[in-house]
Amino acid sequence: MSVEAAIPQPHGADSAGDTCREERTLSLVVENMNCGGCLRSVEKAVSAVPGVAHARANLSAKRIMLRFDPEQCAEDTLVEALAGAGFRAAVMEAGKDADADLAERRYLRRVAIAGFAAANIMLLSLSVWWGNASDMDEVTQALFHRLSALIALPVVAYAGQPFFSSAISALKARRLNMDVPISLAVILATAMSVFQTLNGSQQVYFDAAVTLLFFLLIGRWLDQRLRTRAHGEAQNLLSLQSGFATVISAGGKQRNIPAYALTPGDKVLISAGERVPADGVLLSGRGQIDQSLITGESDPAWIDRGDAIHAGTLNLGQPITLEVTAADEMTLLAEIGRLMANAEQGRTSYRKLADRMARIYAPAVHLLGAVTFITWLLLGAGWETALTYAIAVLIITCPCALALAVPAVQIAAASRLFRNGVILKNADALERLAEIDTIVFDKTGTLTLGHPSLINGDEISGKTLAAAAALGTASRHPYAKAVVEAARARFGEVDAGTDVEERPGEGLRRIAPGGEERLGAPSWCGARDTGDASLCYRSPEGKITPFQLRDTLRPDAFETIRQLKALGFKVSLLSGDRNGAVEEAAAAAGIEEWRGEANPAEKIAVLQRLGRGGKTLMVGDGLNDAPALAQAHISISPAKAVDITQRSADLVFQGNNLAPVLDAIRIAARARNMAFQNFAIALAYNTVCVPLAMSGYVTPLVAAIAMSTSSILVTVNALRLGAVRAGEGT
Amino acid sequence: MNALAWLIPAALFLGFLGLVAFLWSLNSGQYEDLDGAAWRAINDDEDGPD
Fold this sequence. Notes:
The complex is a heterodimer of chains A (730) and B (50). Chain A is α+β, with helices and mostly antiparallel strands.
């Protein structure tokens, strides 16, 4: 960075620089930046905005970092520029995840330094061993040992810090964790080696201490990486949810401010298709809103002057004006978020598998080390010899094959799931997913696609569909969008209708050459006896065509449920929707057990009851599900679901199919097997090596190498999980 | 023995150079977007890396 500043600026840039001294940096989340082409388009779109000095997109993190002049362009013009290029972007709240990034980088730095030291000390150690067999004199040996000490001491002090600090905090809390024996082995080996080096003795084990740190740090870094990624994705979702609000000031002027900066009393303009940024009361306008984020209800709701509207709902009709009553942390949306956090508290008692092992393991490691030391002393060996054997025992029993085994399986399974469209949000989600015996599905948006689609398309002529779709393009109403979508599926492209008038609650109309044509509520079109049509089209000649729209099941729902039942899971359906609709969906998906009209509290009660008898997987998306999702043993959400639920769910899946749920359960089961295999490898290795070490046949370096080999074996075993993908078409 | 007097420092120094190079690349953010870097390499746009 300092290098950049030192480069002399060319004259032109210098004079321009005077006006944009006050540059600001900003990062934006770009949701749908998925490929190299998008990366370039995103950078181009933003760079074209006047005032932007520098833009660099990050494809892995789906973010773009900007330097711009706030006097020439504002945050929202940047977001709009990206929207114009077809990218959905939002401003990141600054500095929220810098910590996780920094931690990952710090681990990598320690890995590099420990690796450098390990290689060089090994070089010196090997020379000494071979020197023993030939003619190396003692002066040279002493020199090599001192050089090793010179390299090892600062490196152990620096690279060992994560282990030391974790061990100290564990000891302060009067507990033992895996880092205690590791720290003890490293410190003892280093201290003894320093002592022996000064005394000119042979028993010097800097190589063992540093090699041990090197391999352990690799494991820690992999683990941190997994966490950072999961955290970054969650952060992206959170930022996308908030967005901007258009505030109307007293003089009637409009300006855009971030949604979290709104205060009660502000007047906010919400145009069609925009999300409501805060809780408030409707001042003017009349229309329809999509409340599915709050209520889980997929049908649009009617609102009129004076009605309360909640943050997170979607304005479907004409522009409306809202007087803010609560913003940011005070909204109902935030309240539901907190409710969810409380439900999540119950889960913190769950200990990670490795931690549970450590509680049994760590005392045993120390005991074995102490027994070795004392026994050899009693047998009459010198303290140096006894301590060397004890260190070898500490290193060889060091549970780092275990420590590495779990993250290795995690990462292999996570990347495998990712390829199948499933994102893991919680590191211990896989373990819990492997334990379930009952699966509870929500209906809207989970078993179904969550938006209406045309089901009687076969009965509608191409001409009628095209005409109806032309009207439909003028509206953002889900029904109109469904008609347009059906037309797109049939014809490829749809002509946009001109001069279409939208009448809230009634429909769309246009004066065509032959008369007026309408697309809207059956009664408004003058239809009678249309059965359960959701929408009608009246042609200029007066011919009426009914359109039936339903929230259809995901295409593979029946097959997935059949396979889940074949695997022996108890499957049920739990929804807040009408009983009739739930029964219909249950029958279509092949689920015998269902319950409709359940409010959030009832859902929680049902899951609590199930939780007593077994382990439940909840698959759901609506925000009213969020507390229920947190109540279940483990939860999965579809990716287009509400952002806040995505944070609460342990896993998230993408796309229109339900199959990822099945894949996730299968992979979780395999990952558990893999983890058990790895524990078995670690155990087998210990039963062979520990007696050898205790009887003094193993030097600390051999112990460190044996331990590393077992770690590598365990990692390679875990990688098989990610590698098996050919032939397993999912 | 005389050879060692400069061979060892030379070996350590070269290794150290490698370490410094790695730490520099780490600190200058070259590992932050590996996916993006792969795409940038095959980008045909006229403006070079910035």
